Amino acid sequence: xxxxxxxxxxxxxxxxxxxxxxxxxxxxxxxxxxxxxxxxxxxxxxxxxxxxxxxxxxxxxxxxxxxxxxxxxxxxxxxxxxxxxxxxxxxxxxxxxxxxxxxxxxxxxxxxxxxxxxxxxxxxxxxxxxxxxxxxxxxxxxxxxxxxxxxxxxxxxxxxxxxxxxxxxxxxxxxxxxxxxxxxxxxxxxxxxxxxxxxxxxxxxxxxxxxxxxxxxxxxxxxxxxxxxxxxxxxxxxxxxxxxxxxxxxxxxxxxxxxxxxxxx
Length: 265
What we know:
Elements: H1 5-20, H2 23-50, H3 54-57, H4 60-87, H5 91-96, H6 101-131, H7 141-167, H8 174-182, H9 200-204, H10 207-221, H11 226-257
Helix pairs in contact: 1-6, 2-4, 2-6, 4-6, 4-7, 4-10, 7-8, 7-10, 7-11, 10-11
């Protein structure tokens, strides 16, 4: 069968109805990004008044937080939409329908963007109003940073989806926790030079590291490092190919084990 945008649209419409009909879901999308912004934003305000660090003055803390939310919420939005099918015991029905796995994945990516924008837009507005966040300072780099981080989030989410297919809801917690393993290694709030030498190779294998290093370069020096963007792009391609292979492999294993119909709440 050929790729069908109609099937992708139908699945996105299902997720949209789920989201729009549940105010707790909508509040949760906004609650955590805003809470994180206020916590770290006021910390940055305090640090700017008590220290003369140029990175604090440049707003790197709030910028790092917002970019981290892009990475984390992009991955989580994908994973939550996938888990909705597990929780409602609908996954087997979808996979027995004409819907192709690639169409399922594209629909999850679309809903990831929708969920991300619902939470990110009010957070950015509050960052501008409370902490003087200036999107223009990041320039065209902001678009590149956003795209690279969302690609990483999708790759991680695809791997998590495969693990949940194979191992059931016992692996569900990975959707919320897996990216926090990378948090200290991605250099979200501090430069790569802070890490010990033996951790730097691990950090340099993570695409977000180059994004956050590039962000600090733009804020501190006004220079967009194209070499960082190229390195993050190449690593994202490697990650995406590896995640897609792992997803297909784990999906086939789940089919062989007969675990697709055994999941649920």
